[in-house]
Write a structure and sequence with these properties.
single chain; about 700 residues; alpha+beta; Glutaredoxin; 5-stranded mixed β-sheet; globular
Amino acid sequence: MNQLSATTSPYLLQHAGNPVEWYPWGEEAFARARRERKPIFLSVGYSTCHWCHVMAHESFENPEIARVMNAHFINVKVDREERPDVDRLYMAYVQGLTGSGGWPMSVWLTPELKPFFGGTYFPPEDRHGRAGFPSILLQIAGLWKESPEKIEAEAARSLAALQESARAEVSRRAPCEGPLNRATEYFLRTYDEQWGGFGSAPKFPRPSVLYFLFREACRVRSSDKTTSARCFRMVLETLQRMAAGGIHDHLGGGFHRYSVDRSWHVPHFEKMLYDQAQLAIAYLEIRQMSGGEEQEAIIRDILDYVRRQLTAPEGGFYSAEDADSLLRHGSNEHAEGAFFVWTKEEIEEALSPEAAALFCRHYGVLAGGNVDPSSDPHGELAGKNVLMEQAFIGESAAALGLSEEEAITSLEQSRRILAEIREKRPHPHLDDKILCAWNGLMISAFARAGAALGDEGYVGAAVKAADFIKGHLTDPVSGELRRSWREGRVLETGFAEDYAFLIQGLLDLYEATFSIRWLQWAVDLQGIMDPLFWDEREGGYFSSAEGDPHLLVRLKEDYDGAEPSANSVAALNLLRFSMMLGYEAAAAKAERIFALSGRTLDSMPAAVPQLLVALGSSLSSGRQIVIAGAPGAADTQALIASARKGFHPDQVILLADGGAGQAWLAERVPSIAGMKPVDGKAALYRCENFTCSAPVTLSEVESSGVLG
């Protein structure tokens, strides 16, 4: 019997009606495998994964294939977003076995959970000399029946290899600028001068690379102006190309997962919360660096999309929207991108001839569709158009004899009309589980953008989400975090990334609101995270807590991919705690994380750009800005606004409010106790290692440029 209907994961529930006798990950499945001496087929994916849907429709919904699976295997489904520990362990095996990975991930295990064969998507029949899924099932079943000892031996070797790879070679030398320079050279070498981004197709946003290059542009500004300018240009051009490309949803806001081509045109259409969070910050940082206002529209585009489509009434943020949707209401046919793409005829029917002419020219809409067949091998987008800006608005306007203002107004009206029409189409599936880690990333984005843009609505969204996590994903007794929440049910396990990402969000929320409760909670969570995940012997954080009998190897993640690793984010958090609260032990922990990743930093630093951000911060003297004044006073707020201007990644801002917040800070940094307004006026103290210059008032800040 299929056991998934009692779960809350949207991904598992998508498979609850399969003829496959699926189990969720857990002892019930494993006990049966041991009892019946059957191998386990482990299938890992997530609810908005296009190829997961394809394999489900082709194989898991096929009664004949299900019969083979049920006869020979114990079949287990895992939502990778709920169990990143399980996903990472077996993905490491699949990548080692095949040289690549992805989802759906298919792995065969012994009853003791040791992997012995795996891959990703398998077709439902043999194709082009490649074995199909049923053939593989029957081959493995035959081998297990005939020579189980050979499979057991292979599984033992695989487990030993995983255990060996989990052992890091700890570096004992002090952190230095070498990895920063080598990573910069790599990104300069692989930059796509024509389309922005790095390498060729497919292209992923990977915002942590952009964060690193922002900071490199600042770090080497005085010593190497050429490299500084090139770093800045790479980031600016990449973000501009992405905003113009089809990876950006020009009608509904936000960004799709990645582009299948080099030019950012045809996306993989799913929208993930973690992409929205990280890209909002990337566009915010380029705005802070350049002083340009054009990025503000994209920041708001992303955040308004999240508020509209990915925010629960209670305040938490949902995980994702699917790539696939029904072709039309009443249809049973799904297609990737169906909700998002257009024919030229549809646009011409919706708009006036003049508006349609401008819109089609500006967004590259063609009568036969604008998708290159090489970007659409299955023909799902044939005859369709993915909107992509072809020129600057002024150029499109001039081509049709319009003023730029007329073109802007016309395109805004056309986007609004088409968005309203699109809303009537069948919507993509919404993955409405609320993940602690991803909410932490989104809290950072709303808090930082709200503070920088002076938008209390965005700050309020961050506060509401943090309150949701506090009330629904935090154990009221122990204070430990839970991984996910959906429809009132929680997944008990919390992982290192849940702590690291939420702590980062709370530090950003403190600097956006100066409510001391967020900083206090961040300190409390760090105090829980350390004993749960910290490796006192070798340094660094394990991804999962100790004690799970079904997890054969505890891994430490350092690769910064679509999401940053827990260790990279934790390293920067620890450095911020040191700067904000004088915690020397926190800075020492960060140094041990760098030592743990020493081999990676030496040999392939481009794999860990978020860790490089932390490394760069550790090499900077940094500064603390302490503002002493009544929280709501106009001069206090004006000083805060002055301190926030520009891009200062190694700066922290604290508020000496004269009340409980200042008292709490002073318990940790005694010098803060004496920081007071000057002659009744709010005062700003500029400090390094809490050695501070004389306080200045607002008029002195405005005249002296003390914050430059």
